[in-house]
Amino acid sequence: FRALNLTLSTLQSTGRSDAKKVVIIVSADEPSDSCDFPSQALYATSTMVYSLAITTGLTDSTATKMCGGRAGNIVRVATWTALSTFSATTVTDKIDCQPPPTPSGCDRAFHFGTGVHATFAGGMTTGLAPLNSTVTLSCNGPIFIPIPSLMLNGSCIYDPVTFNFVWKIQSSGPYCKIDPKFGCPRNLSTAIFGPGSVVEYSTGSTVIKKPTNTGTGSSCSLSAVDLAFVVDQSGSIQASNWPKVIKFLKDFTDQLTIGTASTESQVGCVKFNQEGELEFHLNDYTTATTLKDELDLSYDGGYTNIEDGLFVAINEVFDSAEGDRPDVPNVIILLTDGKDDSDCESMYNLAQSKNIDILAIGIGDGVDKEQLKKCVGGDESKIFTVDNFDGLDELTTSICTNITKSSNATEVAPVGTNITITCQGPAYVKNDNADDGFYTCEFIDPDRFEWSGLDPEDPADEPFCKLVETQGCPRNITAILFGDGAKITYSDGKTDPTVLVELGGTVKITCDGPAYTVDREGPSAILRCLVDNGEYYWLGLDSHYDFSEAFCKLDETLGCPSNITSLFGDHVDFHFNVPGGIIKHFLALNTTVDISCMGPAYYGGSFTITCEIVDGDYEWKDIDEAINGVDCKLNTTFGCPSDIKNWFDEDVVSIHFDFDGIIGDFFDEGVIGEIGCLGPVYFGASFQITCKVIEGHYEWEGLDIAKNITCERNITFGCPSDIKSWFDIDIVSIHFDFDGEIGDFFDEGVTAEIGCLGPVYFGASLTITCKVIEGHYEWEGLDEAKNITCERNTTFGCPSDIKNWFDMDGAFIHFDFDGEIGDFFDEGVTAEIGCMGPLYFGASFTITCKVIEGHYEWFGLDEAKNITCERNNTSGCPSDIKNWFDMDGAFIHFDFDGEIGDFFDEGVTAEIGCMGPVYFGASFTITCKVIEGHFEWFGLDEAKNITCERNTTFGCPSDIKNWFDEDGAFIHFDFDGEIGDFFDEGVSAEIGCLGPAYIGAHFTITCKVIDGHYEWFGLDEAVNGTHCELDENVGCSRNISEEIFGAGAVVKFSDNGVGDVCDEGVDMIVSCDGPKFIPVNGTASVSFTCTMDGKGGYVWFGLAEAEADFPFCECACYCPAL
User: Fold this and answer.
1) The pLDDT of residue 205 is above 60
2) How far is residue 218 from each of residues 221, 393, 396, 539, measured CA to CA in Å?
3) Which InterPro entries match (predicted)?
């Protein structure tokens, strides 16, 4: 145990800080004392402990304790003889491979006592402090002050008795005590504990006095004050006016005696534009000369933010650490010529919480006086305005004088002060539920003072005292004392003259109006029941009022109110019987009003009311009976007329009532009618009308507008022409009585004949007609026609279907027959059999329908069956069909491998479609066919209607970086919006090298549509031509001046190079020029690495973030001890 403790102290005193600390214990026996605590202490100081155990005399358990609980640090040697051949590397290998343990130390969270602030070496505030590190104790001012003659310095030591790291302080605590200037607010009074309470303090109070004017005559010279100027420097001030502002600040400072004594004043200053800026603290300049020199402030311009200027002053100027004194009044003088939307009211409340008074100066007509009122808490006496900056000279004395009037005085009771609450008799006695009425001022950690036993939010739950219930003021104030029209009102609402009025109760004398008004000064008289020396009396009864004449007089200019319509229900009619029909706010005495229901829609009772005076007030006689009796009801025997069709052209207009029942002659209130055009044949605007009662009459609201409805005929459709599917087309014929070209629809009046295909089929025939029925086109008679029945006539005719008898390409059959061709032809009909020209050529034949042996036969058919047709190979389908497609984005692709000439042969196909992916739409396939002896593109008519739309969902890809495998290359798109996956046609991009680090050629590529595809035009050239090389003449600047790191900083570079720039990877090391300068934060040096920032520029990595902690060094100057 002792050996390890000696080792610990030896290593602490003589060990090197830059070397590992190692202890090797060589032992063969069990020790007689414990060694685990000192070995753990060694580990706490970052010392590694190893046990070289010889023979088995030392157990593994003990050896482990020697190593601080680390069994892996045990090395065993079997015998003493074996020790001579033992390799030391067995231990040194463990030492080399094992990192030093984390050191332990004293807890920085240690509580040194109430009001004590600990400052640890190195500036850290949390965690463990290393062995031998120092701590300096101070008191949390201004509340706590040091106890004289105590030494408040200490250090972290290891206590071998308790095996702990502890703080050793030169003097024993407590170290701080409460300054007697601080204590509980001396604000407990009758207002808190209730009427009749008396508050007595056991001690006097500490008072922060108001500043006083020690000047003579019209001059002003202030006593001690802590003052902050908050000065507007926004652009509206203008540089030409700034010297006038500075002159005012210096002139006002001349009214003060500058210094730090209790009778002297201190000044701080804040400028503000869009943000507040601290110029100096209260204790920065403590002589008049240095202070006035610092008031030569610079002018920056900018915007106006009054709130931020006040915030900086309240929180940074009035800080006890920066000179704010607890026993001196705090004052802010705000100077501005503008206005803004900032929250001045919250700044006033914040200032009040720190006992700071605010005065405001407004210059010119640009200030907002209402905003300044919020800055000063609504007290206009604290606002000073001048027309221009020249007027500031006139304000120095008036503001100086105002400070002596407006600054608040604060009284406090020292800790230990007692207060006692009693009741003022004989009118008051202690409340049964009240506590003992004794409280003591106590300090509540960390910075609050409270009266023990009192809730600071609600000091008294109920009054401490109560009135003696058997006493009070006599209830002897009556209307007789004040004359006709006087009205007496007791605050407690009681009228029994034998009941006394409680303390604080009042009696109010008013006039019983509006017929009576006050006939003397003042609108009313109020007497209050008070207690004086335990006696109740009516305050004001004897000395304030003269009862020799009446208090009230009758006001003949008033009358009964005319606004009585709101007292009645809906649908009531009023007739005021007044001269000339002019209705005023008040109607004269004896005026009558006839009240009845709005007819004819409503019916009910009728009444007449009269204006009279009742008990000194103008009232409508019988108005209550009229309100209850008029009772207007809806007359349901009629309403809005339902027959309104004759007001419209009913052939084209539709009227639909939103009504589910049976429609009669009238509709009730609220029914809606929709007026529109009979669709789909007619179209136009639609209107809505509503049945309403207007001034006692039913009316269709909106009808006048609806009468102007205009309907137009829809000529885009009619009765459908495609009705064949409704019949068996093989046996039924449909003939439209229409000369023009038949489209999809027929107009009104067109007829169609439905019959059987004769002569093969026979049956009835019907006629249908296109008509408009309720706004729709319909075939009248179609349902009946659908039932047509046709029978087959199987007794005659040569068959017309003879094509299959000719197995020959190019052969045609033409019947010499003018009528409709059915299944059979009658006798005498001829047919020509030949070759379809011009594609085919050959012989031709004529066959005739004859009756042979009772049968119809084609005469000459057998010969004609041998017809031979040869192909004409000199023509085909034309290849030049592009001009038939007037459409951007359309393409034509022929399925043909050979050279394309003027014509294609039968069977060749062509695909018509949209050039993708830029365009999309339907696609078509046309085929070269021979149709009736002619080459034709089959499907071409349908393909001509192709429509191609532009595909806006993609374009040229934005992700093209991987095409440039080149360090230093950049891509910049000439595009303002958000970049997605693709760019549209016309967008360009610049390809080049990131400068200044890289140099190389630049290219511009453009998004274009080429053969239906989006392509970057010029991309191949850019990919092949972009070669970026590092410019060896650029890098990070070596010209790092002292202005960045502060005085005393020494800058070195890891490459020891010269020149203006460094290469990438070079380190810049900053240290202090010792011993005169030392690091501010305890770190010996910091380094920054030259790095490229990804934009082609060189930066010192980490320098921008670290600038907030500069200056890096501080002077190691000190004053020798006196």
Assistant:
1) no
2) 10, 14, 11, 43
3) ECM_Assembly_Org, VWF_A, vWFA_dom_sf
SS3 700: strand
Query: Does the structure show a pLDDT above 70 at 76?
Result: yes
pLDDT above 70 coverage of the chain, percent:
90
Neighbouring-strand partners of residue 655: 675
The two tokens of residue 529 are: 């029941």
| Residue pointed to by tokens 């001059």 | 219
Residues 6+ apart with CB under 8 A from 1110: 1044, 1045, 1046
Residue 136: strand pairing partners: 119, 153
Query: What Å distances lie between residue 755 and 141, 758, 769, 1041, CA to CA?
Result: 119, 9, 15, 111
How many residues appear in the chain? 1122
Residue 637 is encoded by which pair of tokens?
Answer: 């025997």
Q: How far apart are CA 1006 and CA 1018, in angstroms?
A: 7
Check: CB of residue 991 under 8 Å from CB of residue 1002. Answer: yes
How high is the mean pLDDT of the chain? 82
Q: How many CB atoms lie under 10 A from the CB of residue 561?
A: 16
Three-class secondary structure of residue 630 per DSSP: coil
Burial class (CB within 10 angstroms; exposed 0-12, middle 13-18, buried 19+) of 285: buried
User: 479-483 long-range contacts, Cβ below 8 Å, gap at least 24?
Assistant: 481/547, 482/509, 482/525, 482/547, 482/550, 482/551, 482/552, 483/549, 483/550, 483/551, 483/552
Whole-angstrom Cα distance, residue 570 to residue 1097?
82
Cβ pair 261, 210 in contact under 8 A: no
| C-alpha torsion sign, points 924, 928, 933, 934 | positive
User: How does pLDDT run across 651-673, given as a tens digit for each residue?
Assistant: 788 888 888 888 888 888 889 99
Instruction: Give buried/exposed letters for 489-511 (b at 16+ CB in 10 A, else e).
Output: ebeeeeeeeeebbbbebbbebbb
> DSSP string of 582-614?
---SEE-TT-EEEEEE-TTTEE---EEEEEEEE
- For residue 330 the two structure tokens come to 């705090």
The predicted-structure confidence for 857-874, as pLDDT tens digits, reads as follows 889 988 888 888 887 766
- What is the spatial distance between Cα 330 and Cα 311, in angstroms, rounded to a whole number? 15
- Half-sphere exposure of residue 599: CA atoms within 13 angstroms, side-chain side: 8
Give Cα 823 to chain centroid, integer Å: 83
Q: What is the DSSP letter of 579?
A: G
Question: Rg of the chain over CA atoms, in angstroms?
Answer: 56
Contact 25, 49 (CB under 8 A): yes
Report yes or no: 525 and 508 within 8 Å, Cβ to Cβ: yes
End-to-end CA distance of the chain: 45
The pair phi, psi for residue 753, each rounded to 5°, is: -100, 125
Q: Please state the φ and ψ torsions of residue 72, each to the nearest 5 degrees.
A: -70, -10
Task: Say how far apart CA 427 and CA 503 lie, in whole Å.
Answer: 9
Threshold 0.90, pTM exceeds: no
pLDDT at 534: 58
pLDDT at position 207: 47
Q: Are 833 and 844 in contact (CB under 8 A)?
A: yes
- Degrees (nearest 5) of the Cα angle 24, 28, 31? 85
CB of 76 within 8 A of CB of 49? no
The per-residue b/e assignment along 878-903, b for 16 or more CB within 10 angstroms, e otherwise, is ebebeebbebebbbeebeeeeeeeee
Residue 803 φ/ψ, nearest 5 degrees: -65, -35
